[in-house]
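Problem statement: downstream parser choked on a complex file, so we are re-checking the raw output for the guanosine-5'-triphosphate run. The parser issue turned out to be on our end (a line-ending mismatch), but while we're here, posting the original submission so the record is complete.
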Amino acid sequence: MQDWRHKIPTIMTSQELLDKAYARASRVDVNGAAAFDHVKKTNIGKITAIGDMTTTTLLKYIRAFPRMEQEDEFYSQLIDVLIGHEKLKKALVNLSWCAEKCSELQRQYLFRVRKAPNIDEVAKITKAFYGRFSSVINRVEPDLLFCQKARDHLRQLPAVDTTVQTVVIAGYPNVGKSQLVERISTAKPTIAPYPFTTKGIIIGHVKSGWRTYQVIDTPGLLDRELEKRNAIELQAILALRYLADIIVFIIDPSETCGYTIDRQLALLDSVKQNFPDIPLLEVESKSDLEGRPTGRPRLSALTGEGVDELVKQVEGMLKAQRVNDLDKLPT
Ligand SMILES: Nc1nc2c(ncn2[C@@H]2O[C@H](COP(=O)(O)OP(=O)(O)OP(=O)(O)O)[C@@H](O)[C@H]2O)c(=O)[nH]1
Ligand SMILES: [Mg+2]
């Protein structure tokens, strides 16, 4: 699953690439029968080392990045928001141009060195190789820098399993989202980074028969008015639509969360509008406390009241979606 998240190596700058290749070349010393033979073989060794090392490094970079067409929509949207598909594609195309060019220069200059008639000519050709090689590597400096930045962004992406069904919990801070996730999770929830929130999303895993699904708490994402988000933030939040099979929206009628019921209902509206295609369950939390009921099913993550009913309803809906999805498969 998304092994590119941590697999992408540090991307060197042009200068670092050149320094590394030239340092390796400077250690090449090949024995030869006579002075001319020695110089020729050594320079052949240097050109080979420089070309090989750089080409291998660049190809390693290119392969390490995710292929957009292979990513599912959730990651695809997040990557587009954070990095930009087109920009990333262009940078990788340029690196691949550079790798090809390096290999071509290597071939050309090896051929010329082999044919060189004397030591002076070998030295001249090798020097010319270094010059042209440096200029090719320097041309992709912006692409290398871009890829390094992209790598940092990719590491910020959450490691979520996009192959299991997912319930996303929404509602204002302090309404009891985390408490509920903890209550229904069979394993200790894990925390994964998510763009534009420092808290990270909290992923609980639930076993239902021999199936598992995940319940995701979204602090900093679906816990305040979406209208107040800037466009990029909103895009990152809306990527959740590709993940969520159900949204459970929690309203705290006790208002001990610090938000009035009216404000909470306004957020509910905003979530509904922004996620029109995702089935949404509305529940009231903290049923053990006093409050003005809104007529929705009530539960208490503290006492456990109503939790089993919610879980049953959620699992029934997940099952219905699976059946429905199976029916849609081409026969
Ligand atoms: N009495 C009572 N308190 C609850 C219940 N559920 C949660 N709380 C309390 O409400 C507070 C907030 O609960 P959390 O689960 O952290 O709320 P949250 O929605 O995850 O909050 P953020 O992570 O800040 O978004 C905590 O002090 C909980 O102990 C409940 O069912 N009954
Ligand atoms: Mg929480």
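For whoever reads this later: The longest helix spans residues 85-115.
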